[in-house]
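Handout, section 4.2: multi-component inputs.
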Amino acid sequence: MRRTGAQIVWEMLRQEGVEVVFGIPGGAIMHTYHPRQQYGIHHILVRHEQCAAHAADGYARASGRTGVAISTSGPGATNLVTGIATAMMDSSPIVCITGQVSTPVIGSDAFQETDITGITLPITKHNYLVTDVKDLAYVIHEAFHIATSGRPGPVLIDLPKDVQQEETNFMAPEGEPQLPGYHSVGLADPLLVQQAATLINGAKRPVILAGHGVMMSDAVEVLRAFAEKTQIPVTFTLLGNGAFPASHHLTLGMMGMHGEAVANHAIQEADLLLAFGMRFDDRVTGKLDRYAPNAHKIHVDLDATELNKIVPVDVSILGDLRHVLEQLMPLVKSTSHEEWFKRINIWRTEADLRDVVSRPQNGRLLTPHVINAIWEATRGEAITVTDVGQHQMWVAQYYHLDRPHTLITSGGLGTMGFGLPAAIGAQVGQPDKEVWAILGDGGFQMTLHELATVIQEQLPLRIAICNNNYLGMVRQWQELFYDQHYESTHLLNPDFVRLAEAYGIRSWRATTLEEGHQAIAEARCHPGPTLIDFQVAQKGEEGNVYPMVPADAALHEMIRRSMPSPEYQNLIEERR
Amino acid sequence: MKRTLIAQVEDKPGVLNRVASLFRRRVFNIESLTVGHTEQPGVSRMTIVVDSSRTDTQKVAQNLYKLANVIKVEDISEQPAVMRDLALIKVGINGGQTRSEVMQIVKTFRARVVDVGLETLMIEVTGPEEKVTGLVEVLRPFGIVEMVRTGRVAMARGNSSSKSS
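Output:
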């Protein structure tokens, strides 16, 4: 079969099971765009290439399939960079295809030429510059394999214009690509697994730290069985949210800088940490030299470079988590850890008293109330996509998840502007699910042009803006640590309701919780996309995220929301 | 302590860049890196010398393995191995006496004179790094005009092999 490079792109995408791609055409990629419709692959035209990468990322995280982003050369390619780096940090499988100037002029500073393989070298799992059309089919096949296998990540293929135009005999490559330097991880060392089991069976105050890896290795079920058999409480990272049911009696909630106090205290007093598919990011450890000082540590990860990278551990097991847990199951004893749970329940009760959601209303709208209202209205069954900042932490705290892969958020890179485009991707990947994009007013305005994409694709996306007219998380730091000097964080915002209307999106404004409930209910009944502008509290205990582990503090040294007055405490106790 | 890693890599454009970029990104301190062809077509071999007091050699190896083009990495520091460095040294000569003195030194070090100019001699020396450094130090008072060293290449002795498969 004679095929041009452009045709081979679509032939191969179809073979890899791709149904939808996100992108923007341009001079150096037009040739590839031209035959698209013959191949029945849907193209979603975003408004900025960064959002093509974020949307591909959101699509991948929501659907479990590979996301694909396409852009032209030069500025089109460089605009992808933030999205690629985001996917890299959060191990999200995306394939980016960039146009490139023709091979004879590469290196001559031709119009819209940029060295995108050079630029993305440190932020891709692998990348390619295809200089011969004969290599193209195999490169695409390899790219999908690398993006999705092992620890997933972004792969970029740079495709010069002449390679897109040239013809060759096309034969679809089949089977697993032969990559002499790409090693898959085998079964874990049974000796190490036995050592881990011995530590687990001897532990009095064990805690499981569940990361993103739990979901990526499909270990959610076996983790639950393991935790129930051993009666070990589970706390999760931001990206591990969903790895363990929030409603389960063994859950402690999220750990880390804005984690649950009970989780952070438990980690600090533990005698054994079981780190499963997580990487001890600085946002979850606090001050390292005082992190879990009395705990033995077991670390299971698929990536050898993560073991002993940040926290030196007693037993490090290289392997796929699901298999390791299956190996561990017959070796661990059923226990109860009654004393440990007594201690944990003291922290839990105290945390309940400090919880802002259980406090009486004073008429002002607080972001935790908004999140709680959305959670209640959707019965916790929506896919939530966040941006980055205060609202993100509150979603993690208050949108309790019982199912995996239902929170999509930029963890490692903390990319503001991620939320809206990633939600577009998530909605495309899960067209029958209710998807809520919960955003801050700062991050929303970094990529709000994608409202046009929402309309063009008629996606029934629910957009919630927690609008406090500030870069809220930075403002919080300024309030607490920079003498309340609010340097460059106040945002003079447009009228988001009228803005949404201009795009043709049905919208509401809510300034009280009552209005909030009303708007959420009406939005959920509307068949098309919706946007709600929640005008939320800006400052103090109402506007700041607690608990908070300040910089350079140990994990248990949290700033907490103050205790309510005794009569409210009684009220809360009664309600319990 | 200096440790020696042998990395077998695919002979493809940009692989050296990937390795160098990795070292920069992970802030690995590398003493020397040499790269060249091997007995296997399509496979290049890198000899990487790491100062293990500043950079964890195992981390270097694990991170190299994550590059899709790196086939095999081996730390041969604990094995009996032949380690060699090659240098070309151009020494300034002003008069017949210095010329014969330098020639004498070259002979003692089992090095070779590979070029004779009116006012210079070019010397080639191969050997363990200490020997090369020793010759350089002895020649320095004569005035070294120009010098280049390859950095270490290494191979384990006996039957063991760092072949990729």
